[in-house]
Amino acid sequence: MRDLFDRIIENKGPLGKWASQAEGYFVFPKLEGPISNRMKFQGKEVITWSINDYLGLANLPEVKKVDGDTAAEYGSAYPMGARMMSGHTDYHEQLERECAAFVNKEAAYLLNFGYQGIMSAIDALVSKDDIIVYDVDCHACIIDGVRLHMGKRFTFKHNDIESLETNLERASKMAEQTGGGILVISEGVFGMRGQQGKLKEIVALKKKYKFRFLVDDAHGFGTLGETGAGAGQEQGVQDDIDVYFATFAKSMASIGAFLAADKEIIDYLKYNLRSQMFAKSLPMVYVKGALKRLDMLRTQPELKAKLWENVNALQNGLKDKGFDIGTTTSCVTPVYLNGSIPEAMALVKDLRENYGIFCSIVVYPVIPKGLILLRMIPTATHTMQDIEETLTAFSAIRERLQNGTYKRLSAAVAAAMGE
User: Fold this and answer.
1) Of all helices (H) and strands (E), which one includes residue 215?
2) How far apart are CA 194 and CA 243, in angstroms?
3) Taking burial as the number of CB atoms within 10 A of a residue's CB, which of 135, 158, 204, 339 is the most buried?
4) How many Å separate Cα 309 from the centre of its chain?
């Protein structure tokens, strides 16, 4: 019998094997200073395109005042205990009512964390007799939630309605045998590619197949739809989403999340969602802070308008310069380039050190080998100057990638890693 840790020591994983070269710079970097369009990285000012503060709420004085005043009044602990036992307050209920109203649902239930919460929601919604059908590009939190399921599950090709229907046919036959039901899962916005999920087309299949629909709208909440209620509102099918999920970690620049659905479903989740039943209640500083942020989403549409002014300027500028940004239909702005992981490292270092541009790098195994994805998140705090400087920098690094400069610079790294 081998030691459990032998495998871990011998194989650090597709990303872990790069730790000695990447940690502290390409992964686990330390951005410093107030959250904004420009921050400090290793002592230098950089334009930040990796902060999910879509509406620019994180550093607004009125938001920080509510956070600070609440922390001063309640501390970071109150309320203590799980909500079912001793951690329940009027403010938690108020936030749930306001979240439900904002996304046009009967009821809502607060979650401490989005990742943990949606995993637990999937677990609670299905039994071993039920079948899950989900988009293959769903976020890791959904995949981990599906892994908890003891019944059958099928993936459908990304945003491919024909593939979904094929799998719904398989799931329907199986559900007839098991006596269970079907849960379809997609996302309002897919966070890597920026594409909206085909919610309208999925909902249309309800006329032919019997299933319930769960949507993770982490990137759509606050950014899409007339009032910011998300991708369902944007596509005109919010009422047909059976369970709606959103997080506070993006447009609301905070911690926490919520599920929204018919009251009967939320009542069930309140008593069966293990990640909340057995966890400490969301602290008051985040609850009252979320109430303030949600009020700003409702009453200050100019925040979303400014965000989209910047999104359109950045995306149109990239397309005008011939960059491939895929088929994004959201604020998420991917830039696809061809190159190896060592070339990607050299490229990103050049961007940061010589052009003052900080954006996230995505490589294999998240995307296919030979591709480099520079993932950009425009916010309401960015300026036209930020965008112009970034477009100039991207044109320069593309030329260096194509003429082999980064390949030569990265040769030593590739040799060291045996690539």
Assistant:
1) strand 212-216
2) 21
3) 135
4) 21
